[in-house]
Amino acid sequence: MKPVLAVEDLTVTIGTRRGPAHAVAGVDWAVRPGETLALVGESGSGKSMSVLAATGLAPRTARVTGRVHLLGMELTGVTEERRRRLRGRHIGFVFQDPMTSLNPVLTVGRQVTEAAEEHLGLTRRAARSRAVELLDMVGIPSAGQRVDAYPHQFSGGMRQRVVIAMALACEPDLLIADEPTTALDVTTQAQIVELVGDLQRRLGTAVVWITHDLGVVAGIADTVAVMYGGRILEQGPVDAVFGTPSHPYTKALLAARPDPAAGSAELVTIAGAPPSPLDLPAGCAFWPRCPVRGDARCEHELPPLVPVSAGHQVRTFYPQPSDGERR
Amino acid sequence: MARFVIRRLLQSAVVLLGVTLVVFLLLQLVPGDPVRVALGTRFDPQTYEALRARAGLDQPLVVQYFDYLRRALTGDLGVSFRSGRPVTAIVLERLPATLSLAVTAVVFAMAVAFPLGIVSAIRSGSLVDHAARVFSQFGVSVPDFWMGIMGILLFSGVLGWLPPSGYVALTEDPGRWASHVALPAATVGLVTASILTRFIRSSMLEVLSEDYVRTAEAKGLRTRVVVLRHVLRNALIPVVTVVAVQLASLLGGVIVIEVLFAWPGIGRLTYDAVAARDYPVLQGAVLLVAALFLLVNLLVDILYARLDPRITVK
Ligand SMILES: Nc1ncnc2c1ncn2[C@@H]1O[C@H](COP(=O)(O)OP(=O)(O)OP(=O)(O)O)[C@@H](O)[C@H]1O
Ligand code: SF4
Ligand SMILES: [Mg+2]
Fold it and tell me: Which of A168, A321, B166, B282 has the fewest Cβ atoms nearer than 10 Å?
């Protein structure tokens, strides 16, 4: 199946006062219709920037290179006007903080169907009934009345439902969810994860889900890409990556996951900090923190992305054989 | 909404009462005897006493104040020491001149500041942005009377397009009113426009970095829609206050400009009343300005509630 969205050798370099920041230093990923791709990694690893750049939402100061394909269309080098017409129509976005991602002075109904008015030419009247339908679909009670309410009249969880309704207004082929649950409490998080899963099955939408929560990844994703220092260190089918993690970083991440089964709150964290995008190391980005550190190559040479099994690749000189147990 | 307006009107009445008291007391502290000044060289003890008695100045202060209040409630603000005409009439006949100058100046300022502020925010760092900054700097640092004089020299002296000074009522001859109001309004408005441009720019920039603007862009809306519907609507909220403060301060009269352009407004009236120690007129002028101020404030609050749904008026 052709991917809905695919990026190849995507780089994002942002001009800053302290020099160019290599926010994304060459990533490749693809998400197929109906599938979920999870992007995981520590803060600053380039997860958000890679999807923003792919869809033309990178900051004005950013320079983006690489190739992007949306539904088989080449997006590289197309005009911003063309990209704008595809955003909202074929790609819906859900951002992290529902408290700030809605406009406080417009009714939720208006905001939910704005994209449909723009891209599908819905009239204001048609848009209103469509808004009610969408709000109802994402589980907002008495949507018929709530459609005229303002964002501040909703709780955080309800607002995130509104944002999801908004993202799905044109029934896009792809939903990009950038840490959609991080700002919510645990119960609400679970509801939102479930809601998106439901809608995805019903509408056949592909999803790129950015998260820190490996538990969520295991639950919803088909494929996962682990990002670090603007690059992908390991990617593949979620069972393969979680079952036989082969990169020292992935292993460490999985080990750092609190284990609910063990009933302990013990959290193993990885010592050290990720590299600064202003100063990416020439060799393996994980080298300063790597417990393996095979040899001098690690420090000076960029390890290539190598396959370890079908569709499962890692970027290290020393893929870790499975030790047969999952922590 | 109606209840809100009524409550605010009552509050305003209380504030106005306070204003009368403060003005009344302050005038007691001002040195100089107004009756003596009014009589000038025609002074003789008998006339002096008679005049004092007629103005009620021989009564105790408390009696004088309540007397003043009682009559003020019926619209009688006393008579001018200087001309003997009713203060209410004197003050009200100056109102159209001041109102038309203030409103024209603010409309002019908004017409300049909105496009300039908006464009310099969305194209920040561009040529327009730099030009706008120079314009603002110029507007706030050059004294308005100097600008007024230059305006007269250029548009009236050199080009001969506009009359150098004077006033024609709008109701009398709209065309001639416009030609007379143009120069003073542009002079005053230029300062207001400079202040507004800066403010609109920074307010727009702040909103541009909001998450919901990115959301709007992520929906694939046209830039025009993002800017007008999402950014401007929000950026406008704090701007309303600044426009109102500017308008209110212009309604208080722009003395220098009114004098320069021989514009018979409240500012000019206040100036003359102070010079002549014409206390009743001064009191009347201050009261009118305070009332206008309160009215503008009320309108701003109503506008605020219209613009920002998070504010509820009860
Ligand atoms: N506007 C910007 N100017 C300069 N650098 C930026 C800008 N936005 C992001 N960056 C840098 O780009 C890098 C990648 O940022 P990105 O937002 O993609 O990280 P992330 O993986 O999404 O992290 P998080 O989990 O915190 O959201 C970061 O190191 C960040 O400092
Ligand atoms: S390349 Fe070397 S330093 Fe990097 S993760 Fe592999 S073993 Fe560790
Ligand atoms: Mg992010």
Answer: A321
Tell me if A232 sits within 8 A of A305, measured CB to CB: yes
Which tokens in the block code for residue B81? Answer: 């020491």
The mean predicted confidence, pLDDT, of chain A is: 89
3-state secondary structure A185-205: CHHHHHHHHHHHHHHHHHHCC
Beta strand spans in chain B (E): none
Ligand 2 nearest-atom number relative to CA A299:
3
Q: Helix (H, G, I), strand (E, B), or coil: what is residue A223?
A: strand
Residues 6 or more apart whose CB falls under 8 angstroms from that of B188 comprise B101, B102, B105, B144, B250, B254, B257
Q: Is A39 helix (H, G, I), strand (E, B) or coil?
A: strand
Please count the helices (runs of H) and the strands (runs of E) in chain B.
Answer: 14, 0
DSSP-derived secondary structure letter, A267: -
> Which of B219, B237, B307 is the closest to A115 by Cβ?
B219
Contact A244, A322 (CB under 8 A): yes
According to DSSP, the β-strands at A312-315 and A231-237 are antiparallel
Distance from CA of B116 to the nearest CA of A (A): 21
- CA distances (Å), origin B277, targets B40, B269, B282: 12, 12, 8
What is the topology classification, in CATH, of domain B98-265+293-307? MetI-like fold (1.10.3720)
Position A322 confidence tier, pLDDT thresholds 50, 70, 90: low
Using 50, 70 and 90 to split pLDDT, how confident is the model at A274?
A: confident
Report the alpha-carbon distance of residue A236 to residue A315 in Å, rounded: 12
Crossing angle of the two packed helices B87-122 and B127-141, in degrees rounded to 10: 150
Which of B205, B217, B219, B240 is most worth mutating to test chain A (most A CB atoms within 10 A of its CB)?
B219
pLDDT band at B198 (very low <50, low <70, confident <90, very high): very high
Question: Residue ranges of the domains in chain B?
Answer: 98-265+293-307
Spatial separation of the C-alpha atoms in residues A284 and A27, rounded to whole Å: 15
ipTM: 0.88
Q: What is the mean pLDDT of residues B31-42?
A: 72
Taking the C-alpha atoms of residue B256 and residue B101, their distance in angstroms, rounded to an integer, is: 13
CA dist list (Å): A150 to A106, A110, A157, B171, B221: 6, 10, 15, 45, 20
Tokens of B200: 């609109």
Q: Are A282 and A296 in contact (CB under 8 A)?
A: no
